[in-house]
Design a protein that fits this description.
Elements: E1 2-12, H1 17-27, E2 31-40, E3 45-55, H2 64-78, E4 81-86, E5 90-96, H3 101-111, E6 117-124, H4 130-135, E7 140-142, H5 150-163, E8 168-171, H6 180-185, E9 190-194, H7 206-213, E10 217-224, E11 234-241, H8 248-271, E12 275-278, E13 281-284
Parallel strand pairs: 5-6, 5-8, 6-7, 8-9
Antiparallel strand pairs: 1-3, 1-4, 2-3, 9-10, 10-11, 12-13
């Protein structure tokens, strides 16, 4: 039976990279299913994503460790940073507070098989969304956060990440700022949805600020979490057209649609290994 894998890599630009990758895969009897690459001429880097299938020799299955070990000589020659991933779905921990629209959208896509990952549990600093999570058959863990207990709450979150073997933490309108220490520990493994088309209106009631300024587009930004608040590498942005007839309530409704769309896309693309970090930006192979 064929096994499915994805190779992602970044390396300095030079000739022969694609030839080396394809030669390696063909030499193993692998069949390339999808291939995408991007040459960043400004930074002098090449980014590549290749999905492929292969059949194990004999009864032993091929593993990502096998592939990585055999590919290491090629990687060394070209100075590659690379990763092989198999078809095992990522496990997600969803962080929420009181707003449920992003969680509801993620749950729908997960149950419909369109999220590209498995939701393992929901964690919140409030009890409001417990019924939504438990109705989907998911564990709901209440971790209250106060200024005095913030450190203990973040330690509990890390314990849950380990206990449930979580690959990705998704902040689905989680209304708490993570500490710098936690951001570093979750680097590249935490995605946040921001209720603006960054850079945008900051602080309380962003849609009311937008209304006061007469905006014509409402947007949302999904990005990786970093110690620099709302400054992490952007994965996806969604904008929706509005006009003078939209009051604050209508802007909130439209804005929540944008948030849900941008977040679900970012989560799916990350879990499908379509997002590669490029400094403080990203390369996204859609």
């Amino acid at each position: 039976m064929a096994q499915h894998f994805t190779l992602t890599l970044k390396c300095p630009e030079r000739s022969g990279i694609v030839h080396a990758v394809t030669t390696f895969l063909v030499g193993r009897g692998c069949d390339i299913v999808e291939h995408q690459q991007f040459d960043d001429g400004v930074r002098g880097s090449l980014f590549l994503r290749t999905s492929f299938s292969c059949v194990a020799d004999g009864v032993e299955k091929v593993t990502v460790d096998d592939l990585a070990r055999e590919f290491s000589a090629v990687a060394t020659d070209f100075g590659m940073e690379f990763q092989f991933s198999d078809a095992t779905p990522d496990r997600i921990l969803v962080l929420v507070s009181k707003f449920g629209h992003c969680l509801n959208d993620l749950l729908f896509r997960w149950r419909a098989g369109g999220l590209g990952a498995d939701i393992a549990l929901v964690v919140s600093n409030h009890e409001d969304l417990r019924p939504m999570a438990e109705a989907a058959g998911l564990p709901f863990v209440h971790v209250p956060v106060t200024p005095e207990t913030k450190s203990e709450a973040e330690q509990r979150l890390l314990e849950l990440v380990g206990e449930y073997q979580v690959d990705l933490v998704v902040l689905a309108r989680y209304m708490q700022v993570l500490s710098d220490d936690l951001c570093v520990k979750l680097q590249g493994r935490a995605i946040n949805i921001h209720h603006s088309f960054l850079p945008g209106f900051k602080g309380a009631k962003p849609y009311h600020q937008a209304y006061d300024r007469g905006v014509k587009y409402v947007g949302a930004t999904a990005h990786y979490v970093t110690p620099e608040l709302d400054e992490g590498p952007i994965i996806e942005q969604e904008v929706l057209r509005v006009d003078h007839s939209y009051g604050p309530r209508e802007l909130v409704t439209v804005g929540r649609d944008a948030e849900a769309l941008a977040l679900s896309r970012a989560v799916r693309w990350h879990c499908e290994r379509r997002v590669l970090l490029n400094g403080n930006s990203t390369v996204v192979f859609r």
